[in-house]
């Protein structure tokens, strides 16, 4: 047999060239014990961190709007368990259901009208509400002063 790399003639039954080592099986080096430990601990910490992040992203953030918020001439009340809201904005009073996304919430009133309010979280109990009113963009800082589920009373009209 002739080696295709160096041209040496040999009779090795495993077809390994004695001169250049062509077709010699590669020996895999084992990882040092400290590297295995670092990867194991790092992976475990990453999994724990991911679990905590998923918990806060789903459970805690989903309930973030719940409660009564006030600021400026806006008062906003969310009942998370029933997905209902009550909004007083100056002379405007709205009630109905809501859906929340990470940066806005959509209010659907009882008569079917839909309003979208964007918000930016500024703290645990503070948010900046951004909405359009009479062709003007308004920014109002709201502070939550009560967090528990609230019973929304229907509006009594005269």
Write down the Rg.
33 Å
Question: Architecture of the domain at 67-146, CATH level 2?
Answer: Beta Barrel
Outline type:
rod-shaped
Enter the CATH topology name of the domain at 67-146.
Lipocalin
| Total count of strands | 8
Question: What is the mean pLDDT?
Answer: 82
Structural class: alpha+beta
Largest sheet: 8 strands, antiparallel, barrel
Q: How many alpha or pi helices?
A: 1
Q: SSE order in H/E notation? A: HEEEEEEEE
Helix content: 10-25%
Oligomer: single chain
* Share of β-strand residues: 35-45%
Name given to the CATH homologous superfamily of the domain at 67-146: Domain of unknown function DUF4822
Low-confidence regions: 149-158
Task: Give a short summary of the structure.
With 158 residues, the protein is an alpha+beta fold. The protein has one helix and eight strands, in the order αββββββββ.
Describe the structure.
By secondary structure, the protein is α+β, with helices and mostly antiparallel strands. It has a domain at 67-146: Beta Barrel (Lipocalin). The protein is 19% helix and 39% strand. The protein has 1 helix and 8 strands, in the order αββββββββ. It has one helix at 33-62, and strands spanning 67-71, 74-79, 84-89, 92-100, 104-109, 114-123, 126-133, 136-146. It has an 8-stranded antiparallel β-barrel.
Q: Keywords, please?
A:
single chain; 158 residues; alpha+beta; Lipocalin; 8-stranded antiparallel barrel; 1 helix; rod-shaped; disordered C terminus
Explain the layout of strands and helices:
Blueprint: H1 33-62, E1 67-71, E2 74-79, E3 84-89, E4 92-100, E5 104-109, E6 114-123, E7 126-133, E8 136-146
Antiparallel strand pairs: 1-2, 1-8, 2-3, 3-4, 4-5, 5-6, 6-7, 7-8
